Amino acid sequence: MTTVIAVIIVFGLLVAVHEWGHFLVAKSFGMRVNEYSLGFGPSLYKHQWGETQYALRIIPLGGYVRLAGMEGDKTGDPREFPNRPLWQRFTVVLAGPFMNLVLAALLFAVSFGPVGVPHWTTTIQQAIPHYPAYAAGIRAGDKITQIDRIPVSNWNEVATAITAHRNQVIDITVKRTGHLKTFPVTTRYDKALHRYVVGITPAAVTVHLNPLRAIRTGVVQTVQLTGQWFVALGRLITGHGPFSLTGPVGIAELVGQAAQTGLVQVLLLAAALSANLGLFNILPIPVLDGSRLFLMIVEGIRHKAMDPNHENMIHFVGFVILMALVLVVTFHDIEHLFHA
Question: From the CB of residue 28, how many other CB atoms can be counted at a distance below 10 Å?
């Protein structure tokens, strides 16, 4: 039940904020919005408020904002989307992906600030019986200070040093009741973890940043994630990177795993998913926001809009292709679940 609730909240939040971006900017420009909908298919609930219908639909795999004039039903009404200046239309379309990046920064900020992020220390929380460290005499509460006489200050340094020694003796120096003790420990390969271990787990402390630093860190994390995304895309296009997509089932599995770990992992995963959703949407693939942005750029260069019928056909074909891709990726995700 926890997994189901987490998946519904995460999916719903990402889609709602994305469509909210389109909706708010369109409203601010005075455009007429006919519908704000979360999900596809038959409606579970709908309500007419002013000139806009708000709907919750049965298939929770997306959403949309239906602007007047976008579906070939335009008239001479200046409030219709096609009759607005190009820069306003471009801004409305771009607002959806942009809001996903804003949401990512906010979720990162909440994670680093009020909720707090676990920071793994060099203090040992558990020395697992029947593993090399326990057999050598290392116990819970020991604080690792050196590996092979080299000082360590964080758990990453400890883990890196251990995995670098393959079936070799490693000298682990710990601080216990104010005294330093050194234990020679031979690393052992763990088939489940696929790496060399000695059988210790670190203690964690929760770190809370002040609000300003948390916001700054959230923005930095989002910017870095965006940069990594474009680098990965460039490597994929040039053939130097793997082609890997995760569909709704795979994402739901990730959210479920995060939900079992704790709130901070759900927030961090939701932030990463929000950023990826926003960035993926700016790709010039028919039916995505990126295709509309691309066509508007072409319109600006040509000083002439594309024929609406041709544009609708492009988006229809793109929608069919995208749905086919989603089905293929979903099948792959399900197959992976059964073989996991």
Answer: 12
Residue 142, classed as helix, strand or coil, is: coil
Type of residue at 283: L
Note every long-range contact of 17-21, with CB atoms under 8 Å and residues 24 or more positions apart, other chains counting: 17/99, 17/100, 17/102, 17/103, 17/274, 18/63, 18/96, 18/97, 18/99, 18/100, 18/277, 18/278, 18/281, 19/63, 19/64, 19/65, 19/96, 20/99, 21/95, 21/96, 21/97, 21/98, 21/99, 21/100
- pTM more than 0.70: yes
Domain ranges of the chain: 2-115+222-339, 118-207
Q: Which CATH architecture has domain 118-207?
A: Roll (2.30)
The 10 Å CB-count burial string (b at 16+, else e) for 130-144 is ebbbbebebeeebeb
- Interior angle at CA 318, CA 312 and CA 323, nearest 5: 125
User: Is the pLDDT confidence value at 275 over 60?
Assistant: yes
pLDDT digits (tens, 9 = 90+) for 213-222: 999 999 999 9
Do 235 and 241 touch, CB atoms closer than 8 A?
A: yes
Q: Distance (Å, rounded) from C-alpha 180 to C-alpha 200?
A: 18
pLDDT tier for residue 123 given thresholds of 50, 70 and 90: very high
Mean pLDDT over the full length of the chain: 86
Mean per-residue pLDDT, 202-220: 93
Alpha-helix residue ranges (DSSP H) falling in the chain: 2-28, 86-110, 132-136, 155-164, 211-237, 248-261, 263-281, 289-302, 308-339
What digits encode the pLDDT tens for the residues 222-237? 999 898 888 877 777 7
